[in-house]
Amino acid sequence: MVYHYKAVALITGANRGIGQEVARQLASRGFTVVIGSRDLKAGKAAASQIVSSGFSAITVRLDVTTTCALSSTPICSGRPK
User: Fold this and answer.
1) What is the reported pTM?
2) Phi, psi (deg, nearest 5) at residue 78
3) Is the CB of residue 31 less than 8 Å from the CB of residue 5?
4) Which end of the chain is more exposed for a tag (fewer CB within 10 A), N or C?
5) What is the second-level CATH architecture of the domain 8-77?
């Protein structure tokens, strides 16, 4: 049996600035980009730009300054929410 996996990149602060550009470039290289953002609305807007360009992106609320946010992130826990 052959398995095919798509690379996934979780990028914190990807709703603006350098993080957003990193997300855009990784998405253009075939990664599914997970936009980690404290502001979910801004994260969704950034993901929408990537998706409208024909690439794959989703958004999760993520504040790396709190431990509980990291442990409850679906991508980290291995289960979709």
Assistant:
1) 0.74
2) 80, 10
3) no
4) N
5) 3-Layer(aba) Sandwich (3.40)
